[in-house]
Amino acid sequence: MSALNARLSYLFNSYYNQTATEQEKDELFQIINSSANDAQLTALIHQAWNDLEITEPLFHPETSMDMLNRILDTNASPDDIPHLIKQTDNTRLWIKLGVAAALMIFVGFGAYVFINQKKQRDAKKNITQAKPMHDVLPGGNRALLTLANGKTIYLDNAHNGVLAKEGDAQINKTRDGQLVYEGEHNDTAKGAAVMNTVSTPRGGQYQLVLNDGSKVWLNSASSLSFPAVFTGKTRDVEITGEAYFEVAKNAAMPFRVKTNNTMVEVLGTHFNVMAYNDESVMKTTLLEGAVKISNNQFTSILKPGQQASLNQNGQIRVVDKADAEDTVAWKDGLFQFTDASIQSIMRQAARWYDVEVSYQGEIPVREFSGRISRNVKASELLSMLKYAGVNFKIENKHITIMQ
Q1: Where are the domains positioned within the chain?
Q2: How many CB atoms lie within 10 A of CB 349?
Q3: Beta-carbon-side half-sphere exposure of residue 91 (alpha carbons within 13 Å)
Q4: pLDDT surpassing 70 at residue 200
Q5: How far apart are CA 209 and CA 191, in angstroms?
Q6: Architecture of 141-326 per CATH?
Q7: What is the sign, positive or negative, of the torsion defined by CA atoms of 365, 366, 371, 373?
Q8: How far apart are CA 93 and CA 60, in angstroms?
Q9: pLDDT for 46
Q10: Using 50, 70 and 90 to split pLDDT, how confident is the model at 47?
Q11: Residue 186 DSSP class
């Protein structure tokens, strides 16, 4: 099955089972409007109808065929459907394709088609039984703020408004869940900076604005240590895990990100740093501006669209045309993959859903491409993979990928 057909199968079944998100619904109807997918769509409708086990015919074959064609036609409008139905007669003759058209209206456009109530109950029962017995909710805005004096504040439970004052900075939590540091930076101040740390758990994420106006998005299982107010000649921060930066420009005071034994130095730019301990390489992806990557062995300057990968031996490899959209999709609330291994996908899933992952049997080597909201339950993400031949089970926050 092609990646597109697998995606269409997932979207159709999600919509049919009433688990599709609004974004997935929009994506489904965009695919429906593409004539290239008519054969696959029709096959899916047939299967869904067969699952309902309804044998009573609803429409005349010619009318049903016309309805299906109108639905699949890119020029069709939902307003056309009631008019078509009103003109149907009570003829009992039917064919499978006609019933498929009826189901498409039933699934896609609401209460125009009525079926036997007992059959509906049986179908719903079957659908319920097919869903995983256990599931895991997605992560959310959760983080811990540690002040210089060791005091900790759980940001997901903290009130909006002023949380604390650190040196010359005032720390505010906004209504939309951001942490904002207010206070002028001082490039002539002496002495140790007042350091704070924001850390996200597995299943958490958070956004903050530093006192120079730079914005930082923290992915799950990550941390950012930074001065409450930047002082001296550089703006130095340190991260673990993954973070996306939009750095405020200040040529006289370079912004530097330290992770492991590597330094990323910028003046004003947009970039992503991924440095999880369970990943084989650290990746820095540049979207805008310029950055310099350096360690004890190598130095490399990135241009927009490039990505630097640092392996465990300290060697840096630069990719000229990195997939920046995939890299920063997490910041925009998406899982997005292009030719990704199941292991790579599941490492992301484990951090976001705060689950353990194990593999049972010999898992075929294959690559996956697709996109889905990070706001869905774990079973919905895994169902997208299931249509490409990956089986799974979820029990007590443990996901098992099976042959």
Answers
A1: 33-130, 141-326, 333-402
A2: 22
A3: 14
A4: yes
A5: 23
A6: Sandwich (2.60)
A7: negative
A8: 6
A9: 55
A10: low
A11: B
